[in-house]
Amino acid sequence: xxxxxxxxxxxTRRIAAMxxxxxxxxxxxxxxxxxxxxxxxxxxxxxSSASSASSPTVAAGTTGKGVARAxxxxxxxxxxxxxxxxxxxxxxxxxxxxxxxVPVVVLIHGGAFAMGDSGMETQYAQQLVAQGFAVASVxxxxxxxxxxxxxAQDVKAAVRWLRAxxxxxxxxxxxxxxxxxxxxxxxxNMLGATGDQKTIFDDAALGNADQSSAVQAVVSWFGPTNFAxxxxxxxxxxACGSKSQVHGSADxxxxxxxxxxxxxxxxxxxxxISSYLAGAKTLPAWYLAHGDSDCNVPDGxxxxxxxxxxxxxxxxxxxxxxGAGHADPMFDQTQVQPTIAFLTQTLAP
Length: 349
Description:
349 residues, alpha/beta, Rossmann fold
C-alpha cells in the first residue's frame, strides 16, 4: 500500500474543536490539549485474535459488480431518509475500472451530539478515496433538533440506504466500515455492536428496513462508550484535575441528548456499547485510539470497551496516545496512516 502522508488539520476541524472546548452552556470545559502541546507518544497496540464465531459480518445482499468511473466523483447533500432535512450524506466515489465492487467507509462527525456536519470529514474522505474506498460522510439529527436515539437511528438508516443503492454506485455490500471521532466514535461503535440485532437504534420508518446496517470494520477515535461511567473514569485522568468535563449533570452534552440527566435518566443504560456485544452473533474488527490525557472523554471509555471486546472474542486493536487530549492534533499526525491501513487490511479494496 502506498505511504499515506499525515493530514494537516483543516480549518473546519479546528473551528469544531474550538467550539467543543468553549460551550459552557453544554457543560463542556476546556479541551485537554492544544496544538502547542508536545508530541504525544503512541503506545504499542494490542490485538486479540477473533474466534470463528466473531468473524466479520457478511451483510444481506451480494457484492455485485462495480461501476466504472474515470475520475473521483463527489455528490453532496444526498438524502438517505425523508423525516428531516438533516438526513443527508456526502458521497465520495473513487476512480475505478468497474471490474469489481468497491468497499465503503462511513464517516461520522463528532461535536458532542450537538454540532458539526459532514463537511468536517472531507479531508479523511479524500485520503480514503485515494486508496480505492467509496466514502459516505453522514449528517444526523443533533440534540437541538431531536432527542436520543434519533441521531443513532439516522446513522443506521444511512447505512441501510447505502446498501439499498449498492448496484447504482458499485458498492460491495459485504465490505462496510465505520469511522467516527468523539460523538461520532460512539456512533461507529454502536454500528459495530448492534449490526445484526434489533435495538432501539433501528427505525424502519426511515426506510430500507430490508437492508442490513452491519459494518465489518469499526474505527473510534476518543469516542465515549458508556455515559454512566464517564465521570468516575474522569477522576482517574490525573492530567486534567478540575478541567475534566462533568457528564452526569443535566446540562452536559450527553444529558441534553438523552433529554434528562445522565445520572438519573432511564435511557442511560442503553448507551453502554459493551452491553450489546453479548447479543451479537458476529462482530466486526475494531480499531480504538484514545489519549490518556483526555479531559472531555476519559480514556477509560475505550479501556472499558476494549476489555469487553476481548471478552467477546472480537478482533481488536487499542492504541493509547500518551499525553494526548481530546481531538489532539497528534491523532491526525500519527493515526491516519494506521487507521487507513487497518481499513485496507480488513476490507481489502
